[in-house]
Backbone:
């Protein structure tokens, strides 16, 4: 017999115990659960909601096995499928009294049913891949050319305003492919314009040229700027997708960047691909309308409006704070005209602001509207699924030209960035195409688990029998070693929270 | 209990020429099938839509195919999958139109084809043309890199004769697997590609074991001719070879039986690969080394180092 020092044996024992401990959660399986998460970016999950959920369940006589809450959702673990459905209905009714205007999504989910002390040790079960769990996988390709074109259109509009402000006469500004071309009658104006642009447009490389009697300036985006725009487009698209998928009430969506211009979306448990695709492809629209201040201030009219009889030509929408507001039906601007929205600070007052950039057509309309309505309020509405919400309703202080709009006043920095996000969320920065799609039904997922598991077990058994017969005692020893190898592998994978897929099972089997 | 109580060296090398001719013929056949029939690539590589649907009652495949053609799908493939109640439908990429909506349109078409026997969707895979091309080129690249890596490794560890014959033997396995897939028109998918790469790994492992023993024998035993040395090396490792691969094969067989359709071709590719891997490392690589003119002189140049390299 080989004699190993005690500490070696002890080390092996400790490792095996640890391995067993971290493999354990995989054996407990999963219990049905209900997950509550916020649908709107304006509503956050807070402790009060937790109390509300608990009270609701108590009132309905539903006993739960545990309530968990994190930053984005509240999860309730339940005994079986029946209570799960009952709890879901109850929560749905209390949290979303008006079904058409849901603030929370209540989704069925599965939670690991391993005991709390294991969870405290961070011993969590392995995450099952889509092929074992069922769900939808999309690979989306972001059209970067589209993003650049959109941006260049915006730049052309900026240049137009810039040149007009400085009183430099040009005979036309156009986007031609990936260039912005400005035409001038004489060389002097062109040179002046070139200096101006070099100072004001750091993102553009300006080259001067001459075509017969016309003098031209050609602006091309610098590679660094191009890259920044593309990164921004991708990030914004991911944000937008996040917002939309939250509405689907998917328990653990994966939305990741893949490569330079692709986004992976994985929605476990979602079966209805048509709906998922619809939501991914949908654009929430942004509308700018005038507020009917006179009637909004009139309590009697408001009371009537809230009962479904708003004055002619107006609609009732809720402000983000919850206050109702009468908004004229006529749409001043739509979100198509919005190029960008960013949070920032006012130069003079240092108050947080939201800065909007409009394209040329939008800028012109905006200038006209603001000139005629100084002192009145305009509402920016975010319309999704046919329901609108007033994101912000600032007072127009003066005529605003040039397509650069600054919204300021009584805002915190977080509010400003939230508003900017909401405004941006309405639109995708660049169009996207689905280039890969996989849907796996839940029954197929369960089947795959079973088959993978069976083949592993039988293979293992066959090897164990063969080894024990062929090598007798040594065979048994090696079988034990093999078993602990698999055990440690599972433990490590669980510890790393790796995703287990069918090929993964096959690979484990082959080791 | 012991299966392989071999006292004498088995004279493998006497039949080396025969084995090599057999190998050459199978290899050429595989190449011919690959060229004439081509691989039946899965939609992961070609792009297109694949759907798996299950029915409550067995549907008429022909009727569904006709219905789909009538609904404007070009060249749809409809076949039974697993059981008669389950169908696998493949639709190639449409040159125009929104390919990502194909799945929804197929479902509508299927529902129209079988009233009262509504299908249930089990799985949809849609791969765009670009992704398909990328996967195909990435897959080829993976294969190429593995081969280059193996050559470099073997060249460093042994010498060029071994490296060349090992890589020829291994590629011979790969080509033969591919030949099988081409001949039977089995579907060549990503898991199969993974299996092929795994086979390359196993096969190299096997070659290394035999070659190690060859080198050791050259150093230890004097007065043996090259074929005798090879015979000795193969005979002394054959028991280990068959047992390890036998065990792997047990696992693969169990996957083949219990793994269901998703793992079927993966396991199949591994099975062929393992069988040919044993054969090729023993009976293809070694004769090649011999033809390439390996001899004792190449090993006793630096006798003092490499002493500990007796693996197995």
Residues:
């Amino acid at each position: 017999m080989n004699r190993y020092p005690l500490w070696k044996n002890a080390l092996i024992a400790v490792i095996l115990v640890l391995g067993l401990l971290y493999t354990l959660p995989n054996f407990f399986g999963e219990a049905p659960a209900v997950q509550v998460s916020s649908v709107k970016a304006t509503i956050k999950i807070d402790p009060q909601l937790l109390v509300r959920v608990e009270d609701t369940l108590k009132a309905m006589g539903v006993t739960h096995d545990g309530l968990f809450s994190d930053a984005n959702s509240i999860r309730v673990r339940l005994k079986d499928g029946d209570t799960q459905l009952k709890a879901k209905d109850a929560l749905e009714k209390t949290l979303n009294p008006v079904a058409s205007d849901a603030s929370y999504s209540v989704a069925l989910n599965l939670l690991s049913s391993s005991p709390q002390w294991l969870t405290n040790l961070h011993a969590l079960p392995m995450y099952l891949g889509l092929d074992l769990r069922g769900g939808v996988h999309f690979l989306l390709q972001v059209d970067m050319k589209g993003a650049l074109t959109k941006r260049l259109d915006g730049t052309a509009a900026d240049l137009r305003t810039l040149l007009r402000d400085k009183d430099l006469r040009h005979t036309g500004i156009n986007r031609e492919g990936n260039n912005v071309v400005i035409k001038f009658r004489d060389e002097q104006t062109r040179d002046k314009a070139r200096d101006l642009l070099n100072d004001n447009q750091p993102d553009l490389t300006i080259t001067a040229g001459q075509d017969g009697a016309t003098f031209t300036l050609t602006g091309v985006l610098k590679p660094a700027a191009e890259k920044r725009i593309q990164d921004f487009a991708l990030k914004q698209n991911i944000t937008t997708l996040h917002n939309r998928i939250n509405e689907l009430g998917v328990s653990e969506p994966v939305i990741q960047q893949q490569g330079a211009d692709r986004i992976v979306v994985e929605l476990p448990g979602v079966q209805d691909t048509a709906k998922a695709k619809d939501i991914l492809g949908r654009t929430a629209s942004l509308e700018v309308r005038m507020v009917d201040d006179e009637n909004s201030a009139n309590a009697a009219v408001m009371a009537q409006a809230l009962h479904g009889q708003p004055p002619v030509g107006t609609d009732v929408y809720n402000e983000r704070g919850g206050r109702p507001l009468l908004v004229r039906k006529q749409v001043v601007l739509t979100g198509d005209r919005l190029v960008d929205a960013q949070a920032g600070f006012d130069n003079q007052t240092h108050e947080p602001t939201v800065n909007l950039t409009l394209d040329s057509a939008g800028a012109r309309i905006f200038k006209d509207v603001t000139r005629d309505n100084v002192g009145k309020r305009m509402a920016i509405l975010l319309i999704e699924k046919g329901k609108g919400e007033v994101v912000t309703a600032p007072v127009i202080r003066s005529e605003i030209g040039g397509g650069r709009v600054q919204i300021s006043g009584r805002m915190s920095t977080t509010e400003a960035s939230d508003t900017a996000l909401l405004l941006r969320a309405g639109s995708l920065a660049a169009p996207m195409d689905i280039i890969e799609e996989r849907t796996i039904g839940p029954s197929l997922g369960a089947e795959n688990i079973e088959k993978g598991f069976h083949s592993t077990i039988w293979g293992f058994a066959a090897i164990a029998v063969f080894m024990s017969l062929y090598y007798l005692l040594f065979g048994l020893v090696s079988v034990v070693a093999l078993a602990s190898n698999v055990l440690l592998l599972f433990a490590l994978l669980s510890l790393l929270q790796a995703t287990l897929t069918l090929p993964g099972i096959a690979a484990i089997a082959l080791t | 209990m012991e299966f392989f109580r071999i006292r004498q060296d088995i004279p493998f090398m006497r039949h080396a020429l025969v084995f090599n001719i057999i190998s050459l013929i199978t290899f050429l056949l595989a190449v011919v099938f690959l060229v004439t029939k081509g691989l039946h690539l899965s939609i992961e590589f070609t792009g297109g839509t694949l759907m798996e649907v299950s029915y409550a009652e067995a549907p008429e495949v022909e009727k569904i195919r006709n219905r789909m053609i009538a609904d404007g799908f070009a060249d749809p493939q409809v076949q039974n999958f697993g059981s008669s109640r389950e169908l696998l439908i493949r639709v190639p990429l449409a040159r125009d139109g929104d390919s990502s909506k194909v799945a929804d349109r197929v479902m509508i078409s299927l529902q129209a084809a079988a009233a009262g026997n509504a299908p249930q969707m089990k799985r949809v895979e849609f791969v765009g043309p670009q992704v398909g091309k990328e996967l195909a080129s990435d897959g080829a690249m993976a294969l190429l890199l593995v081969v280059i890596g193996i050559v470099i490794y073997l060249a460093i560890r042994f010498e060029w004769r071994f490296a060349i014959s090992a890589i020829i033997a291994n590629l011979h396995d790969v080509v033969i697997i591919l030949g099988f897939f081409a001949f039977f028109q089995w579907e060549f998918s990503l898991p199969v590609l993974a299996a092929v790469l795994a086979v390359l790994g196993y096969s190299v492992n096997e070659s290394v074991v035999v070659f190690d023993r060859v080198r050791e024998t050259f150093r230890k035993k004097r007065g043996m001719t090259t074929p005798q040395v090879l015979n000795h090396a193969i005979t002394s490792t054959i028991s280990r070879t068959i047992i390890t691969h036998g065990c792997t094969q047990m696992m693969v067989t169990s996957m083949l039986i219990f793994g269901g359709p998703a793992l079927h071709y993966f396991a199949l590719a591994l099975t062929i690969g393992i069988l040919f891997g044993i054969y090729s490392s023993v009976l293809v690589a070694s004769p090649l080394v011999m033809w390439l003119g390996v001899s004792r002189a190449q090993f006793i140049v630096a006798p003092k180092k490499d002493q500990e390299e007796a693996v197995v």
The interface with chain A takes residues 1-3, 52, 100-101, 103-104, 120-128, 130-131, 191, 194, 198, 243, 246-248, 250-255, 257-260, 262-263, 266 of chain B (CB under 8 Å). The domain at 12-41+132-298 of chain B is CATH 1.20.1640.10 (Multidrug efflux transporter AcrB transmembrane fold).
